[in-house]
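job 3f2a | input accepted
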Amino acid sequence: MTTNHTTGSTLVATVAGGPQVVTFALDELFHRGEAIHEVIAVHLSPQADALTGPALVKLAAGFADGCYAGRPCRLHFFPIRRDGTRLDDVRDDAAVNVAWSAMYELIATLKAQGRHLHVCITGGRRMLALLAMSAAMLHFNHDDRLWHMYTPAEFLERAHDGAIMHARPEDGVRLLQVPLVPWGAYLPALRALAQASPMEVVAAQTRWLDSAERAHCQAAVERLTPRQADVLRAFADGKSPQEVAEALCVTVKTVHAHKTVILGECRNAWELPQDARLDYHFLREKFGRYFG
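job 3f2a | predicted structure (292 res):
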């Protein structure tokens, strides 16, 4: 796919049988004052769904001469392909890898061009939405947005199959921002996994996160006395305060005193606010694998 390299905002939307998913999202973004210069409709083969082909034709009609509703805005179609042919569904691991690679490359390319991205994951196959979210986590910066569209049931019924292609503010269509941590912005090395399989990417991300968590655990442990470390190990093993007291032959009051100190060091190690509520379940969750 060739895209316009002029720096600007791009809407990427997954689509199947409902072309209005794209246009409703675009209408709402324009209403919010966003300057969208390009729309990319991600889809599987039209043969996967009898409605997809007509939906794409109807969508294209709304972008005649590179304009949408009187605004300069170009539409590009991005079919997911396998071995030169369009993928008709995501039904096995091989298809997941193909769709993942395509979605990853699309978002990575747009970000390399300096694009500010809006990604709407409401339309199309659910798996495409999940893969778009996964790619966004690696390539988004803090100014990019992932959206889910809410459409009132009554209006959705009237707009079915593209019967209505434009949504006014009073129609109640809303884009809801999906909370998303842009891990690639914090851990740029994750973005180097462009040729990796989905499982390799997940494994690499887990290793990075495990390394960071181990560093936090180590920082906390180094600040403890040997007896406090014994208490921490017992909590990490899944014991309750009473069980810790019995295992170490001390009173529950003593266990709680040690626990208070331990949690204080955890707040410092993880840079948590002093009023953050922590308990012994936190210790089991964070230190179980560390000591294991």
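job 3f2a | Confidence is low (pLDDT under 50) at residues 1-6.
job 3f2a | closed
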